[in-house]
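Ticket closed. Logging final result for Amino acid transporter.
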Amino acid sequence: MSPVRVTDMRWSWVRKNLLLLLTFSGVLFGVALGLALRAVGPDSTTILLISYPGELFIRMLKLMILPLIIASLISGSASLNAKINGYIVVRTILYFMATSLLNALIGVLLVVAIHPGSPLARQALTESLTSSSNTTSNVNILDGFLDLGRNIFPENIFRASFQQVHTVYEEQLVTQHNNITGVDAKITEMVRSVKYRAGTNTLGIIVFCLVFGTLLGSLGKKGAVVVDFFSVIDTVILKIVTGVMWLSPLGVASVIMSKILSVENLGTVMSNLGLFIVTVVVGVFIYQWIIQNLLYFIFTRKNPLQFYFHLLEPWVTSFATASTRRDANTEGDPTNTTQPNNALCASPSPPTITTLYTKPASMT
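Final structure:
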């Protein structure tokens, strides 16, 4: 192969992966400049101005989440028959349940094995688990499954875009009459209540959009106009997202610099969070590189490494923005309904470990 041909191939690769290279450069630039500016000691106003471009970048990404999910799922499911869409809904629900269980199991095992929290938390956690009754455990498991059903079928689809249902236990002071002494005594009881918390009800929106798109596609020519409407919206949203992603080098650098500068004692924080970081990294490695690779190979019969290569750009962006919901979008046919499923497969779940890390530490 001639040197000219090799040079052309290299430049072709650079042009094709220019956004990835720029985003990765933004990460390195943000880390280097953030560490360098720590010696200067900028004030809070300066840090605010440095973080402002990154804040706008993240806000633009979050703005695209719901329109992208709704338009792509409706337009994609409308092009398939009802039987295939039924399989997608069932597999989506089973995937959420299975991966949630695996995440919780991995988190519990790693926290017990590594124990990233306070040294005294292991003893407190053991005593707490020993003293807990089986009835309480069953109630908590039951609440989890009931909340799953409530989120699958939200009572308000607009509310599901920013809130999700969860069960909480609150202390309530009640008056209990003693028939023997005839004296009223006030006692505290734990009362179960269903409330809303901040967070997108992704599962409920996915189920609604798949059902809506399936029935829309079954209308044939009557629903063709609406299908075209959502297809055009999906195309426009993807173009907007593509344009926003070209701002990722600046946004990523801004976010990383502001986070580094906002930490008062970086060395102390890193040393205190050392075991926590190790626990999260090990958990993500097990879940992402073993479980997810195995699931991807079983369902697609394809090489997962080739799939991960196309996720380099979203990973680099999500590393700084901590917003994997938009970053998990991949290039391709906007009506391809396998994209949302692949995106779900690419999203690890360290929050389980984070919750278990903070919970035992609060016992001491």
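The first strand starts at residue 163 and ends at 177. No further action required.
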